[in-house]
Amino acid sequence: MLGRGSLKHSPLAAHTIQHLDGILQDAHDAPSWSLYEELTADGAQVQRPELSQPLVTALQLALLALFQASNVVPQAVIGHSSGEIAAAVAAGYITPEPAILIAYYRGKATLEAVYQALVGMMAVGLGPDQVLSYLEGSTIEIACINSPQSAIFSGIKSELVPIEERIKNDGYFARLLHVDAAYHSHHIKSVAGRYEDLLRQHVEWQKHSKNKKQSLMASSTTGKALETPPGPAYWLANMVSPVIFSQAAHELTTGPEAVDCLFEIGPSDALSGPINQTKNAASSSVKYVSACKRGPNAISALLHAAGTLFMGYLISLTAFNHEGGNTHPAFVSDLPNYQWNHSVKYWHESESSHDWRFRKFPYHDLLGSKILSSPWTNPTWKNVLRLSDITWLRDHLLGDSVIFPAAGYIAMAIEAI
Predict the structure, then answer these.
(1) Rounded-to-integer distance, Cα 408 and Cα 385, Å
(2) Are residues 283 and 198 in the same domain?
(3) How far out from the chain centre does Cα 207 lie?
(4) Are residues 311 and 372 in the same domain?
(5) Which one of 33, 158, 358, 401 is most buried, counting C-beta atoms within 10 A?
(6) Is 176 helix (H, G, I), strand (E, B) or coil?
(7) Which candidate, 41, 188, 35, places its Cα nearest to that of 100?
């Protein structure tokens, strides 16, 4: 159920997945499974690379289509590992059709990898300089530098396990990932040739340079901004080279191309930790928002992200309405142009209501209140005298009887005038 909530909530996202499904079914060595069925199924097999690569990319492209339909245009983009595929689409360098094929063939090639021993990857809560002492004497490589306090190792599992124990014993975070591949290391190079052949033979590549409509893409593969659409050689390097996400993220928070909001598009907020660590290290006030979060409230996270962007960016929320689809709202032309325009009154108020709201005098102990709608040229007053309300009247006695004082009548006439 990787994207069940998003796909069932948004017809546009579902349509995007179905379109990408058609691209894969027409591709060389087409899959026997469906993107839509896998994304909405219970317990999707996201640990299998031939599934996880295209599934995650497809979900990112569906979310991207949703926000693009809402007029969200990024100033700059950055991707992490295979996330650069969808990032290249967001930046305008490639279209969704070759993007899903790049991800699909990446998974196919990874499946064919042959390792001499069981391999895996491990996340650690240490920076690149701090981890070197733990890697001495091993073949483990730094696969990803996520932030000044976060990295990912890649290599043989039998070497990763004791390193994990040492790091934990020293009081730092360390956890083996549910991955049976060794991305971004020399181990994955065994399928590099196969991956490159699939890309060159079965993906249609665009042959144009960067134009004004494209956004800046800070590459976490090269550490530099892309100038031309990435081709087979780039995506090969993306799979086998270390991910230098921290450097690219730092440029977007403090460099000349710094942005004011970092918006993560993916199946979860997996990069929230590294991004916040990078922000804190740079003393940056850049806001972070994630389109999705793990758990049953995925739709709430999506709508919260849209609402957060809406507070500071002119976006259309139509695409986020359940029945929005491709429909357009109808405009009511006979309403005021501005909600604060009160030059025309639509409230027909009665004279009694107006008299009560704008009464000139408070309630009087003897006179009471003016009868509503009676004119001031001939006002009429009404009151009910109760000894419990006007206790001083008890003091005007004739024998044992309380008598209203004659001076009271004079006082009422004077007060009424």
Answers:
(1) 12
(2) yes
(3) 33
(4) no
(5) 33
(6) strand
(7) 35
- Selection from 227, 232, 271 nearest residue 249 by Cα: 271
Parent domain of 193: 76-113+181-315
What is the Cα–Cα distance from 319 to 286, expressed in whole angstroms?
26
pTM of the model: 0.76
Alpha carbon distances (Å) from 182 to 141, 143, 337: 10, 8, 60
Are 381 and 261 in the same domain?
no
**Distance between CA atoms of residues 309 and 128, nearest Å:** 33
**124 in a structural domain:** no
| 337 assigned to some structural domain | no
In this structure, what DSSP letter does residue 191 have?
Answer: G
Same domain for 244 and 364, yes or no, is no
Count of domains forming the chain: 2
Asked whether residue 147 is assigned to any structural domain, the reply reads: no
Structure-token pair, residue 276: 């916040």
Q: Are residues 309 and 356 in the same domain?
A: no
Query: Among 258, 290, 315, where does a domain finish?
Result: 315
pLDDT in tens, the chain (417 residues): 456 677 777 888 899 999 999 999 999 999 999 999 888 887 656 667 889 999 999 999 999 999 999 999 999 999 999 999 999 999 999 999 999 999 999 999 998 888 889 999 999 999 998 999 999 999 999 999 999 999 999 999 999 999 999 999 999 999 999 888 999 999 999 899 999 999 999 999 877 555 556 789 999 999 888 888 999 999 999 999 999 999 888 888 887 778 889 999 998 899 999 999 998 888 888 899 999 887 767 788 888 999 999 998 888 888 887 655 556 667 777 766 777 777 877 788 888 888 888 888 888 888 888 888 888 888 888 989 898 888 888 888 888 899 998 998 898 888 887
**b/e string for 386-398 if b means 16 or more Cβ within 10 A?**
eeeeeeebeeeee
Buried b (16+ CB within 10 A) or exposed e, 343-375: eeeeeeeeeeeebeeeeeeeeeebbeebeeeee
